[in-house]
Design goal:
This protein is an alpha/beta fold. Helices cover 47% and strands 12% of the residues. Strands 3-2-1-4-5-6-7 form a 7-stranded parallel sheet, sandwiched between helices. The longest helix is centred in the middle third of the chain and has 29 residues. This is 3-hydroxybutyrate dehydrogenase. One of its GO terms (molecular function) is 3-hydroxybutyrate dehydrogenase activity. Keywords: Oxidoreductase.
């Protein structure tokens, strides 16, 4: 792989699995030094640190256990990235959680935590990282939103509201920094193949009395015209482009990777 990010430092939240880990691996293979963040079993975190470290050509990748619902921990994470790796040139706000419920039954604490992690954390991380980016003369901010940042689905009020807010935050920040050497963009994936997403297929098959293949295409991916998963590597490639050379004029956009979902 061409080392398009050689010399850059990236901080990727929610990067111990799934989309975030794929982005971290892609950045490391492109030459960046990467700090990971996220929750999970200790052995899973260790495996992620080892994999990204090997991609960087070093030992374990640095890691922050910061809780994205706690602003003080987010600020400390950005400070630690700058102290340990010398900069925070690239910030990927990827951490997110989900909960599904009718609005009148939605637990208030769940709603508040989803909004805090999926949206408010982006603000705190951007606020902490942006001054250093401006001072060093380079910065790339990538917010991982969702197709649900552009369109809605029922029973996902907290997630949909948070992801719509991420897209709005992206646009507003992009306008503020338009004359600086920093850009801010959002990626809006549809249904992505991750262990958590794949685990939804069998329960749907059992519920509707159909095969798992039919459950996937007719129920889980019913709004995704391609009827196939978005792969984590596809999302990582988009993030890599947004943070690499010749992307400086892409600013304030919400780029869909959704198999045509939002084209309908």
């Amino acid at each position: 792989m061409t080392k398009t990010l050689q010399g850059r430092v990236a901080l990727v939240t929610g990067s111990t699995s799934g989309i975030g880990l794929a982005i971290a691996l892609g950045f490391a293979r492109a030459g960046a030094k990467v700090m990971l963040n996220g929750f999970g079993k200790p052995e899973e975190i260790a495996a992620a640190r080892q994999a990204v470290g090997e991609a960087m050509g070093s030992g374990e990748a640095p890691y922050s256990p910061a809780d994205m619902a706690k602003p003080e921990e987010i600020r400390a994470m950005v400070t630690a990235c700058e102290a340990e790796l010398g900069a925070c040139d690239i910030l990927v706000n990827n951490a997110g959680i989900q909960f599904v419920s009718p609005v009148e039954e939605f637990p208030e604490d769940r709603f508040d935590r989803i909004v805090a992690i999926n949206f408010v954390s982006n603000f705190h991380a951007i606020k902490a990282a942006l001054p250093g980016m401006k001072a060093r003369g380079f910065g790339r901010i990538v917010n991982v939103a969702s197709a649900h940042g552009l369109v809605a689905s029922p029973y996902k009020t907290a997630y949909v509201a948070a992801k719509h807010a991420v897209v709005g935050l992206t646009k507003s920040v992009a306008l503020e920094i338009a004359r600086s050497p920093v850009t801010c963009n959002a990626i809006c994936p549809g249904f992505v193949r991750t262990p958590l997403a794949e685990a939804q297929v069998k329960p749907l098959a059992d519920k509707h009395g159909v095969s798992e293949e039919a459950a996937l295409t007719d129920y889980l991916l019913d709004r995704q015209p391609t009827k196939r998963w978005v792969e984590v590597e596809e999302v990582a490639e988009m993030a890599l482009y947004l943070c690499g050379p010749n992307s400086g004029s892409v600013n304030g956009t919400a780029l869909s990777i959704d198999g045509g979902w939002t084209a309908q």
